[in-house]
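Aim 2 progress update. The chain analyzed this quarter is reproduced below.
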Amino acid sequence: LAVAFVARYPETNFSPPYNEGALFVETLYKGERGLYCLAMPVTDDMAMIGGREYYGFPKKIADEITLDRDGGHVIGSVVRKGTELLHIEAELTDNASPADIGFTVTEDLDGKTAIKAVSFLFKYFPSATTRGFEHPPRLIRQVSLLTPRADLETGAGKVELVSTRFDPLGEIPVAELVTVSYGVFDSVMLPGTVAAQVRNPLRFARHSLFKSDGPVYLRERGLAPMSGRRRRRLRKAIARY
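Predicted C-alpha coordinates:
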Protein backbone atom coordinates (compact mmCIF):
# COMPACT_ATOMS: atom_id res chain seq x y z
CA LEU A 1 0.00 0.00 0.00
CA ALA A 2 1.02 3.60 -0.56
CA VAL A 3 -0.29 6.83 0.94
CA ALA A 4 -0.25 10.23 -0.76
CA PHE A 5 -1.53 13.52 0.61
CA VAL A 6 -1.66 17.25 0.01
CA ALA A 7 -2.03 19.50 3.06
CA ARG A 8 -2.37 23.17 3.84
CA TYR A 9 -0.98 24.36 7.20
CA PRO A 10 -2.46 27.83 7.90
CA GLU A 11 -0.83 28.04 11.34
CA THR A 12 2.18 26.36 12.97
CA ASN A 13 4.45 26.94 15.96
CA PHE A 14 7.69 26.50 13.97
CA SER A 15 7.30 28.33 10.66
CA PRO A 16 5.09 30.64 8.60
CA PRO A 17 2.04 29.02 6.97
CA TYR A 18 3.03 26.54 4.28
CA ASN A 19 1.69 23.76 2.06
CA GLU A 20 2.99 20.23 1.72
CA GLY A 21 2.60 17.08 -0.32
CA ALA A 22 3.93 13.60 0.35
CA LEU A 23 4.25 10.04 -0.87
CA PHE A 24 4.73 7.13 1.55
CA VAL A 25 4.84 3.36 1.19
CA GLU A 26 3.61 1.08 3.92
CA THR A 27 6.29 -0.77 5.85
CA LEU A 28 6.66 -3.14 8.77
CA TYR A 29 9.50 -2.81 11.25
CA LYS A 30 9.83 -5.25 14.14
CA GLY A 31 6.15 -6.05 13.90
CA GLU A 32 4.97 -2.42 13.87
CA ARG A 33 3.10 -1.10 10.86
CA GLY A 34 4.29 2.28 9.68
CA LEU A 35 5.03 4.45 6.67
CA TYR A 36 8.32 5.07 4.89
CA CYS A 37 8.51 8.50 3.26
CA LEU A 38 9.75 8.62 -0.34
CA ALA A 39 9.08 12.31 -1.07
CA MET A 40 7.75 15.36 0.76
CA PRO A 41 7.78 18.64 -1.21
CA VAL A 42 7.00 21.81 0.77
CA THR A 43 6.61 25.53 0.04
CA ASP A 44 8.65 26.97 2.96
CA ASP A 45 12.34 26.63 3.78
CA MET A 46 11.81 26.51 7.56
CA ALA A 47 9.38 23.62 7.18
CA MET A 48 11.92 21.87 4.94
CA ILE A 49 14.84 22.38 7.32
CA GLY A 50 12.87 21.35 10.41
CA GLY A 51 11.50 18.16 8.91
CA ARG A 52 14.84 17.10 7.41
CA GLU A 53 17.18 17.99 10.27
CA TYR A 54 15.05 16.81 13.19
CA TYR A 55 13.52 13.65 11.78
CA GLY A 56 14.95 12.89 8.33
CA PHE A 57 11.91 13.62 6.14
CA PRO A 58 13.21 13.90 2.53
CA LYS A 59 11.80 17.38 1.96
CA LYS A 60 12.46 19.54 -1.09
CA ILE A 61 11.15 22.97 -2.06
CA ALA A 62 8.26 22.87 -4.55
CA ASP A 63 7.24 25.49 -7.11
CA GLU A 64 3.62 25.41 -5.99
CA ILE A 65 1.38 23.26 -3.79
CA THR A 66 -2.36 23.91 -3.77
CA LEU A 67 -5.38 22.44 -2.02
CA ASP A 68 -8.69 23.84 -3.31
CA ARG A 69 -12.28 22.93 -2.49
CA ASP A 70 -15.43 23.89 -4.36
CA GLY A 71 -18.45 22.32 -2.70
CA GLY A 72 -17.78 18.61 -2.55
CA HIS A 73 -15.03 18.74 -5.18
CA VAL A 74 -11.43 18.89 -3.89
CA ILE A 75 -8.18 19.08 -5.84
CA GLY A 76 -4.69 18.79 -4.37
CA SER A 77 -1.65 19.45 -6.55
CA VAL A 78 2.15 19.48 -6.18
CA VAL A 79 4.29 21.18 -8.85
CA ARG A 80 8.09 21.02 -8.73
CA LYS A 81 10.55 22.20 -11.37
CA GLY A 82 7.68 22.89 -13.74
CA THR A 83 6.02 19.45 -13.53
CA GLU A 84 2.90 18.43 -11.62
CA LEU A 85 4.25 15.45 -9.68
CA LEU A 86 1.18 14.68 -7.59
CA HIS A 87 -2.50 15.25 -8.39
CA ILE A 88 -5.27 14.14 -6.02
CA GLU A 89 -8.90 14.72 -6.93
CA ALA A 90 -11.97 13.78 -4.89
CA GLU A 91 -15.74 14.11 -5.06
CA LEU A 92 -16.84 14.01 -1.41
CA THR A 93 -20.21 12.40 -0.78
CA ASP A 94 -20.18 10.79 2.69
CA ASN A 95 -18.93 11.30 6.22
CA ALA A 96 -16.23 8.98 7.54
CA SER A 97 -14.70 8.10 10.88
CA PRO A 98 -10.96 8.06 11.62
CA ALA A 99 -11.05 4.26 11.51
CA ASP A 100 -12.37 4.33 7.94
CA ILE A 101 -9.18 5.80 6.46
CA GLY A 102 -6.91 2.93 7.48
CA PHE A 103 -4.78 4.34 10.31
CA THR A 104 -4.60 3.43 13.99
CA VAL A 105 -7.14 5.30 16.11
CA THR A 106 -5.90 6.48 19.50
CA GLU A 107 -6.21 9.43 21.89
CA ASP A 108 -4.24 12.65 21.56
CA LEU A 109 -2.43 14.35 24.44
CA ASP A 110 -5.72 15.84 25.65
CA GLY A 111 -7.67 12.59 25.48
CA LYS A 112 -9.52 13.36 22.23
CA THR A 113 -9.95 10.80 19.43
CA ALA A 114 -7.02 11.06 17.03
CA ILE A 115 -5.32 9.29 14.16
CA LYS A 116 -1.85 7.88 14.89
CA ALA A 117 0.58 7.93 11.98
CA VAL A 118 3.96 6.23 12.48
CA SER A 119 6.77 7.25 10.12
CA PHE A 120 10.09 5.45 9.69
CA LEU A 121 12.81 7.67 8.23
CA PHE A 122 16.53 7.49 7.57
CA LYS A 123 18.37 10.44 9.07
CA TYR A 124 21.83 11.12 7.66
CA PHE A 125 24.14 13.99 6.76
CA PRO A 126 27.06 14.05 4.31
CA SER A 127 30.44 14.41 5.96
CA ALA A 128 32.17 17.79 5.89
CA THR A 129 35.18 15.92 4.47
CA THR A 130 32.95 15.01 1.45
CA ARG A 131 33.73 11.35 2.18
CA GLY A 132 30.88 9.27 3.56
CA PHE A 133 28.51 10.41 6.31
CA GLU A 134 28.98 12.71 9.30
CA HIS A 135 27.71 9.88 11.53
CA PRO A 136 26.29 6.40 10.83
CA PRO A 137 22.82 6.81 9.27
CA ARG A 138 20.01 6.17 11.74
CA LEU A 139 16.50 4.85 11.37
CA ILE A 140 14.13 7.26 13.12
CA ARG A 141 10.66 6.34 14.37
CA GLN A 142 8.37 9.38 14.54
CA VAL A 143 4.69 9.55 15.54
CA SER A 144 2.20 12.22 14.50
CA LEU A 145 -1.22 12.64 16.09
CA LEU A 146 -4.00 14.12 13.95
CA THR A 147 -7.12 15.20 15.84
CA PRO A 148 -10.13 15.88 13.56
CA ARG A 149 -11.88 19.19 14.18
CA ALA A 150 -15.04 17.92 12.46
CA ASP A 151 -16.31 14.82 10.67
CA LEU A 152 -14.02 13.46 7.98
CA GLU A 153 -15.40 13.21 4.47
CA THR A 154 -14.89 10.57 1.82
CA GLY A 155 -16.03 9.69 -1.68
CA ALA A 156 -14.68 8.78 -5.10
CA GLY A 157 -11.43 10.13 -6.43
CA LYS A 158 -8.20 9.60 -8.30
CA VAL A 159 -4.47 9.91 -7.67
CA GLU A 160 -1.89 10.62 -10.36
CA LEU A 161 1.88 10.34 -9.82
CA VAL A 162 4.38 11.61 -12.39
CA SER A 163 8.14 11.10 -12.65
CA THR A 164 10.88 13.53 -13.57
CA ARG A 165 14.60 12.91 -13.49
CA PHE A 166 14.65 14.67 -10.09
CA ASP A 167 11.51 13.17 -8.55
CA PRO A 168 10.60 9.64 -9.74
CA LEU A 169 7.22 9.48 -7.99
CA GLY A 170 5.64 7.77 -10.99
CA GLU A 171 7.64 4.62 -10.24
CA ILE A 172 4.98 3.84 -7.62
CA PRO A 173 2.04 2.47 -9.65
CA VAL A 174 -1.51 3.53 -8.77
CA ALA A 175 -3.20 0.18 -9.31
CA GLU A 176 -6.26 0.72 -7.11
CA LEU A 177 -7.51 3.61 -4.98
CA VAL A 178 -8.41 2.08 -1.62
CA THR A 179 -9.77 5.23 0.03
CA VAL A 180 -9.76 9.00 -0.40
CA SER A 181 -10.60 11.37 2.44
CA TYR A 182 -10.61 15.03 3.43
CA GLY A 183 -10.49 16.61 6.86
CA VAL A 184 -9.41 19.51 9.03
CA PHE A 185 -7.07 18.49 11.84
CA ASP A 186 -5.00 19.69 14.75
CA SER A 187 -1.68 17.96 14.12
CA VAL A 188 1.07 17.29 16.66
CA MET A 189 4.46 15.84 15.74
CA LEU A 190 5.91 13.95 18.70
CA PRO A 191 9.68 13.72 19.29
CA GLY A 192 11.36 10.98 17.30
CA THR A 193 13.40 8.07 18.63
CA VAL A 194 16.36 6.20 17.14
CA ALA A 195 15.02 2.76 16.20
CA ALA A 196 18.23 1.42 14.64
CA GLN A 197 21.61 2.38 13.23
CA VAL A 198 22.91 1.48 9.77
CA ARG A 199 25.81 -0.94 10.17
CA ASN A 200 27.09 -0.65 6.61
CA PRO A 201 27.00 3.03 5.50
CA LEU A 202 28.58 2.17 2.13
CA ARG A 203 25.76 -0.22 1.32
CA PHE A 204 23.23 2.40 2.41
CA ALA A 205 24.79 5.18 0.31
CA ARG A 206 22.66 4.61 -2.80
CA HIS A 207 19.50 5.12 -0.71
CA SER A 208 20.77 8.53 0.46
CA LEU A 209 20.38 10.27 -2.90
CA PHE A 210 16.64 10.91 -3.10
CA LYS A 211 16.52 14.04 -0.92
CA SER A 212 18.90 15.96 -3.18
CA ASP A 213 18.91 16.86 -6.87
CA GLY A 214 22.72 17.03 -6.91
CA PRO A 215 23.40 13.43 -8.00
CA VAL A 216 21.21 13.94 -11.09
CA TYR A 217 23.32 16.89 -12.25
CA LEU A 218 26.55 14.98 -11.59
CA ARG A 219 25.34 11.99 -13.59
CA GLU A 220 24.19 14.16 -16.49
CA ARG A 221 27.57 15.86 -16.70
CA GLY A 222 29.12 12.46 -17.30
CA LEU A 223 32.16 13.01 -15.10
CA ALA A 224 34.68 10.18 -15.41
CA PRO A 225 35.67 8.41 -12.17
CA MET A 226 38.85 9.80 -10.64
CA SER A 227 41.82 7.46 -10.47
CA GLY A 228 43.11 6.43 -7.08
CA ARG A 229 46.50 7.98 -7.84
CA ARG A 230 45.00 11.39 -8.68
CA ARG A 231 42.72 11.24 -5.64
CA ARG A 232 45.67 10.62 -3.32
CA ARG A 233 47.64 13.46 -4.93
CA LEU A 234 44.73 15.88 -4.51
CA ARG A 235 44.30 14.94 -0.86
CA LYS A 236 47.93 15.77 -0.16
CA ALA A 237 47.55 19.09 -1.99
CA ILE A 238 44.36 19.96 -0.08
CA ALA A 239 46.01 19.21 3.26
CA ARG A 240 48.39 22.15 2.71
CA TYR A 241 45.50 24.55 3.09
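The chain has four helices and 14 strands. The two ends are 52 Å apart (CA to CA). These observations will guide the mutagenesis experiments scheduled for the next reporting period.
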